[in-house]
Structures are given as C-alpha cells and as structure tokens.
Design goal:
By secondary structure, the protein is mainly α. It is built from 3 helices and no strands. The N and C termini lie far apart (118 Å). This is A20-type domain-containing protein. One of its GO terms (molecular function) is small GTPase binding.
C-alpha cells in the first residue's frame, strides 16, 4: 500500500467550472460555459442583434419590391398604350368595313333593293 493517496475518477480544475465571463459564478456546459445571469445577457444581445438584422433585411426587401413594382407599372403603362392603339385601329377598321358594306347595298332604283338592305342589316347584327 502506498502512503500517497490516489484520487480516482475525473479531475476537473476549479477554473474550468467558472463562468467564461469571469463573474465569479459557476458556468454550465448547456449554456456554453456561462452562468445563468451571463447567459441571459449574452442570449439577449444575440437576439437583439438578430432582430435588428432581420429588420434591416425586411426594409431592404421592401424598397426593392417597391422599386420593381414602380418599374413594372411604367413598363405596363407603355404596353397598355400600345394595346389601346391596337384596339382603336381594330375598331376603326371594323367601322370602315361596315360603312363600305352599307354603301354597297344602299337603296337604289333597282328592284328588290329593300330586300337586299334588310339582308345586310341582319348580316351586320350577327357580325357584331
């Protein structure tokens, strides 16, 4: 037997158990070496930083979205103007055709002109 007593088991130095911030309290591995008080402070700081970063990101995305919307509105306005001109042209073309057909079948001294005029009116109503 030896006179020197031997310690068996795990030996942990006292400094390894203390809080990482050096406040004098004991740390906890679940809290990454901080004591409960220091852990709350660190967690609160990290959370506030994340909230601030998220807020800045949201503002930036909102600005980009508004700029994209404004850009699409100006582009859409130009397309709408082009489409309006197209519609106007089609309407004028249709009116011109109807007028030409009406002139062609207007009443004349020919016999049966009323019958032809009646057929043209029916035809025009069905085309619209």
């Amino acid at each position: 037997m030896s006179l020197k007593s031997e310690r068996r088991g795990i030996h942990v130095d006292q400094s390894e158990l203390l809080c990482k911030k050096g406040c004098g309290y004991y740390g906890n591995p679940a809290w990454q070496g901080f004591c409960s008080k220091c852990w709350r402070e660190e967690y609160h700081k990290a959370r506030q930083k994340q909230i601030q970063e998220d807020w800045e990101l949201a503002e930036r995305l909102q600005r980009e979205e508004e700029e994209a919307y404004a850009s699409s509105q100006s582009t859409q306005g130009a397309q709408s103007l082009t489409f309006s001109k197209f519609e106007e042209k089609k309407t004028n073309e249709k009116t011109r055709k109807v007028t030409t057909v009406k002139k062609f079948f207007t009443a004349s001294s020919r016999t049966g002109a009323k019958k032809v005029k009646h057929c043209v009116i029916i035809w025009l109503k069905t085309c619209r």
